[in-house]
Amino acid sequence: MTDYVDAGQAIPYMQLSAVKGSAPATGNVDYERILDARSEPQNWLTYYGTYDGQRYSELDQITKENVKRLSPAWVFQAGSVGMQSGSSTYSNEASPIVVEGVMYVSGPDGKCWAMDAKTGEELWRYKHASPYDVSLCCGNVNRGVAVGHGKVYMATLNAHVVALDATTGEKVWDTTAGDVRAGESRTVAPLLVKDMVIVGSSGGEFGTRGCLDAFDAQTGERRWRRYMIPKPGEPGSETWPDDGEAWQRGGANCWVTPTYDPELELLYQGTGNPAPDFDGAVRPGDNLYTDSVVALDVNTGEIRWHYQCTPHDLWDYDSTMENLLFDAPDGRKLLAHADKNGYFFVLDRTNGELVRVFPFVDRITWGSITPEGKVTPKVYPDEEGVPVHFWPGPAGGKEWTHMSYSRQTGLIYIPVQEVGATATRRRREFKESIPYWGAGVAVDLEDFYGFVSAVDPLTGEEKWRWRNEYPMCASTLATAGGLVFQGTPTGQFVALDAETGEKLWEFQCGSGHHSSPSTYTVDGRQYIAVPTGWGGWVEGFLPGLLGAGAGDSLFVFALPEY
Amino acid sequence: MTTTSGDPSAQLADGLHRQNSTGLGRLLGGGGVGHADEGPDGKMTATIRIPEDELCFEPGTLILPHGGDLELTLINDDKNTHCAVLPHNGDPKFIWLVNHAKGTASLNLDGPGTYYYSSTTGNDEGRGLTGAIVVGGEVPDEAKLDRPPQPRP
Lengths: 562, 153
Hints:
The complex is a heterodimer.
Chain A: E1 5-9, E2 11-12, H1 31-35, E3 56-57, E4 71-77, E5 97-99, E6 102-106, E7 111-116, E8 122-127, E9 146-148, E10 151-155, E11 160-165, E12 171-176, E13 191-193, E14 196-200, E15 211-216, E16 222-227, E17 259-261, E18 266-270, E19 292-297, E20 303-308, E21 324-327, E22 333-338, E23 343-348, E24 354-359, E25 367-369, E26 375-377, E27 387-390, E28 404-405, E29 412-418, E30 421-425, E31 439-443, E32 449-455, E33 462-468, E34 477-479, E35 483-487, E36 492-497, E37 503-508, E38 518-522, E39 525-532, H2 538-541, E40 553-558
Chain B: H1 8-15, E1 33-35, E2 37-38, E3 44-50, E4 61-64, E5 68-76, E6 82-86, E7 93-97, E8 101-109, E9 113-118, H2 124-127, E10 130-135
């Protein structure tokens, strides 16, 4: 036999593609610039567009009058090679960041791209190698990146946080943030505040101890960590059993990006469900700080106040979803939070005082909350082996996908899910990395619907709703063009009149929406960008569409140039 | 693999790990288990071969004691052309392996966990040319949760 043919060195796979390899350097994005993000609506600088989480853009080129002419400008299709974890559950959940014509967006399975925001040309790509066997409760997903200090920050499925060079995609630093053997992962979009990157934990269905971390943006060194389950003796520990181990695996993960008030220097983090989700008998007490809005000092991670939306949760009612900051006409600093439990909370964000609470869904059977905030559980799985049906189901009246606030109308636009579920308590022992629910759960396969609800947060009045056959499982986006954009589970991307809810335009993207659209301009032309791709925890929020086609595209729309 | 002569179901089970026997290809996840060697600098090395007409990587499962850098040698002893798309932080690595070829791949992987790779030409992946690199070990102490040791399965 002759000598072996020299096959050489393996090369980066992207060399066999049209990826350009570099992105143009943009102006530096730093804390001061993100603070004033509203003044440069041509860019979408941070996860929610602005620190307050309003998901509102001052761009008004696309209007109620001309939106019917909105057309695709370009489409990006990611694709995949080989075997990936949760290969039947991947979903595009991100919100694209745009800086001076360069778009940065993440996808499932550790992928991140820089693209020309005008043409869709792939400028660079990064893929973090993700273990096939990592514990994922809710799919192979990632909700986005943070951009600043010349870097792109991304959390990974195997609980790392990486910083990439914004012009090349090369890794600058890589910090192990969590323990995959304990069932931890990271799926959240990081938030850049000052010289820190804020990243919360995922792993709520595996009995972890939820936490929020702040990392040095330049080095990746951890500055502080705040556990959301207190140890014995710490404030809040009295809400856990004295003699038990429940606190060690109590949950309260932080898998949605916090909002931030720079004047108060407070982060507003929603926390996840207690563990086990449905078996409360092993964790008597209110179980702080699960299912809570938690205000933390951004400099130290100290908890300044908290408000618990579902004490002693028995329905998997995370409160991780966003805390939208807005001010009342009298200047009072408020916070709006539409919880999984079906109630909409308005809090004074300086101290956590309840201002008002009201239901935003049609069907609530698990219990009730009075206008004064008194919580009364009514229906819950407390007897072993006995099925209990309740509304909303464990994905909630609204899950993590975000509402938006129009500064024109003063209304908040909530994507609402009307889906119930049946849980049957089944006690189990805890083992690291194994799901720790304490029940069998079947979400309803029928009798569901959804709507976009336009709510006045100052009164609780619903001004209009746009009803849909299927629940709303994607974020809304409000613009100064008087529009609200919403993706549906069946692939339509629609534009609604922000004042009336009338549908003015729609486009079929070919796969369901479970992401957060953003908007920007390049050379004076306004674009709307929306990742699409049905997936994630579909069995939780809409199992009636488990068989729908998946996808992993990014659609970008604009008005025709001629 | 133990085969009982004359036992049809045992013969069928044995055929799971051969080409065009019980199934059309061989079942994924078979093959041998190998271990990477670790040098004094912590870098790891290993060799994987593609045997003739077996459409598999051998060892089919390569175990690394921990995450880090792996220098992998790939040898195609088959009389057909294959390739490998290999896991690597930053971007997968690709190598084309014509018949009777030898090459290398420098890989960086976090630990712990299982990373699959495959030959992505034709349906090599389905016929059996899908291998696993399994990274053992624990995450750094500073990344672990502050709680007492917990039971594992």
